[in-house]
Amino acid sequence: MPHLHSEGKTKKYVTRNKKYHIELVPTPAEQEATYYAALELVKLIDENLKRKVRHYRNNAGELLTTLDEVICAILNDDLLLTTEKTEAYWMPQELAA
Predict the structure, then answer these.
(1) Nearest Cα residue to 49 out of 63, 69, 66
(2) Where are the domains of the chain?
(3) Contact status, residue 33 vs residue 55, Cβ threshold 8 Å
(4) What is the pTM of this model?
């Protein structure tokens, strides 16, 4: 088995079919960095929603207007990314704003 070069610790476990899987366990510093990056992302999304400088939509094209809706869409992998837009979902009230 090749040696993994990583700062974090590795965790080995065996599955039912007796195959080894290796999972990288992040260090406390990596976990803390991830936490603070998530806080910054939430802060940026909240500012964008309050200032109405960016619109967020789910994959069904529905406009997400609250921070809770956007965060739930992110966690459920249901946020429409700008690179995935194939159709224009602009509503008349958005164009007037």
Answers:
(1) 66
(2) 27-96
(3) no
(4) 0.60
In this structure, what token pair is assigned to residue 83?
């690179």
Tell me which DSSP letter residue 74 carries. H
DSSP notation for 23-44: EEEPPHHHHHHHHHHHHHHHHH
In this prediction, residue 3 has a pLDDT band, given cuts at 50, 70 and 90, of: very low
Q: 62 and 48 in contact (C-beta within 8 Å)?
A: no
pLDDT digits (tens, 9 = 90+) for 59-91: 998 999 999 999 999 999 999 987 655 555 555
The 10 Å Cβ neighbour count of residue 57 is 19
What is residue 53's three-state secondary structure? coil
